[in-house]
Each structure stands twice: as structure tokens, then as C-alpha cells.
Amino acid sequence: ITFSNNLTVNLGNELTPTQVKDQPLVEWPVTPGTLYTLAMIDPDAPSRISPTMRSVKHWLVVNIPDANITAGDILAGFIGSGPGKGSGLHRYITLIYKQTNRIEGLVRNDTIPSRLGFNMTKFALDHKLGEPVSGNFYHSQWDTYVDERETDRAFRGDGIVPDVIDASPKGRIEVTFANNLTVNLGTQLTPAQTSQQPLVEWPTVKCALYTLALVDPDAPSRADPIYRNWRHWLVMNIPGKQISYGNIISAFEGP
Predict the structure, then answer these.
(1) Which end of the chain is more exposed for a tag (fewer CB within 10 A), N or C?
(2) Considering the domain 2-141 in this protein, what is its CATH number?
């Protein structure tokens, strides 16, 4: 298994999520004219101590002729490692099975819910795959790319990208309302809970100025947003993250 920059998987070496974000080259000894199944799983989700989502399906391709993965039938497209912050090392296992017959009747599903709780042993039994004929694995733990990927997935999943903005932000803002209520990529909060100006923090660069904007693209409704975007807060020329020192264009107004 070879990722970008010739990084190879070698029976438990540690690679970062950044290093394994793109689909790798996978090769194995083949019997000409044979079909194979490739599976990549994380059995340690959300953590190895408490793997309640075992296993996460990171990649699943069936009916691969010889080792030509692109000619196989993709049941779950490749996604790189995404271990949660503080969850420790996860094992990422790639297995190759030799098929006795062509697998039919299955359709591709790349949704997150469909990837959780995947039982590779049961899948192998159901499709008479037997034991894996080849395999390898690496370890990985959280790095900042994981948050970038989760942010992008959330912004796209809720239609913010490309409906409201063209691209997802690289970093994530920490927004905390009264009573330590935090915003976390789509959490639901009531108008009463968000009536007061929150504490907002983000990674900063020395001597840089920032603009903060809070908008509602769904006014008066998401189905008919004729008032898009309702400006709830706009501050410019913020030094670092000292919002009170910026130029207030529109003072904070809750939902």
C-alpha cells in the first residue's frame, strides 16, 4: 500500500491523517482471471478503548479483476483516516479477499451512517469470501487535517457550500454563548439561548486584521429566502481576536 510521496504501509507503522488523505496504490499477488474484494476498515472508532462504532468502512470494492481496482464495483468510496482528537491511535486495516463468484445486487453508499458499524467478518461470510488472502495495516491519530475534513463535510452536507459560500473555511471558530453553550457544526440552539453576544475565538496570525460576520441565509425561510442574507453581526478590522477593538458595522443581534 503506497500513499502520496511514496509513503508505504508496513504492518503497523504510524502515518498521519494528512499523509493518508488521498486514495493509495494497492497491490497484491494475484491469480490471473480471479475476482477480489478490497476492504479498508477502522475497528477503533471512536477509540480503541471504547470501539462502539466498530468498524468504520473506509473503502470497499468488490469484483476487482486481478488487481485492477478501478475496474471493480465500488460499494464505498475511499475516505482517509479521521480519528477524533484525544482518541489515541487507531488501526487502519486493509484486507484482500479472493472471490469464488461475482458479487451482485449491492449498490454504492458513501453516506456516513452506512459506514458505521460495518462487520467485515459477516460481510465475508455472507458472500463466501473465506479468509483474507492479503492484508496490511497502519496506525494513525488525530491531526489538524481531521478537523478541516469534518468542517468541509458539515458545510457541504448542510448546503452552506456551495449555496451560501463557495468553499469551506480551513479553520474552525469557537463560539460560546451564555451557560457555556457551544456551536459545533450544526448544533441546534434556541433564540433564547443565543440572545446575547457570544464569545468568539479563532486561530490568529500576529499583526493580522480580521472580519467577523454572522448571517442568516434562510430568511424568512430556507424554502423562500427572499431576505438572504440577514446580517446579525458584522465587525471589521479586528486586531487578532479582540472583537471589541474592531470597527462594528452591525452590532450583534440574536436570531
Answers:
(1) C
(2) 3.90.280.10
